[in-house]
């Protein structure tokens, strides 16, 4: 793990520890993280993916919510290319049910509408 990822990961882990047993706080901090990430311009830092991968492996609610926010930010910017899409799949199977539910609510790709068969006119 690179230095930036280590710093980001340890900071988010400390925040997650502060959220232990406080699900509303975890949600609020995750939303704030999302706002902060969207304000950062430029390419997606490698530290985001590494941190998301590390946090998503932990069973806690806050860690999972933080991993979702990092993954959604990175995945959206990259148009859900790998490794972001691959990172998102385990979040949909996370140990915490609220993390699973939150990850399943996110759309990573939209399917094209089904083609309408030609109407036969008599």
Overview of this protein structure:
By secondary structure, the protein is mainly α. Helix 1 packs across helix 4, helix 2 packs parallel to helix 4 and helix 4 runs parallel beside helix 6. The protein is globular and about 60 Å long. The mean pLDDT is 88.
Largest sheet: none
What is the radius of gyration? 17 Å
The end-to-end span amounts to: 68 Å
Low-confidence stretches: none
Structural class: mainly alpha
- Return the string of H and E elements: HHHHHH
Mean pLDDT: 88
Quick overview:
With 122 residues, the protein is mostly helical. It has helices at residues 3-18, 23-38, 46-56, 61-77, 84-91, 97-105.
Provide the fold topology:
Elements: H1 3-18, H2 23-38, H3 46-56, H4 61-77, H5 84-91, H6 97-105
Helix pairs in contact: 1-3, 1-4, 2-4, 3-4, 3-5, 4-5, 4-6
List keywords for this structure.
globular; 6 helices; 122 residues; mainly alpha
């Amino acid at each position: 793990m690179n230095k930036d990822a280590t710093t980001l990961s340890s900071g988010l882990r400390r925040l997650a520890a502060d959220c232990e047993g406080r699900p509303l706080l975890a949600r609020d901090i995750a939303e704030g993280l999302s706002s902060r990430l969207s304000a950062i311009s430029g390419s997606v830092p490698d530290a985001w993916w590494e941190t998301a991968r590390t946090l998503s492996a932990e069973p806690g609610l806050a860690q999972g919510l933080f991993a979702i926010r990092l993954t959604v930010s990175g995945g959206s910017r990259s148009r859900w290319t790998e490794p972001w899409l691959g990172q998102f799949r385990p979040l949909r199977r996370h140990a915490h049910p609220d993390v699973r539910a939150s990850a399943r609510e996110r759309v990573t790709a939209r399917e094209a509408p089904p083609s309408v068969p030609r109407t036969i006119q008599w």
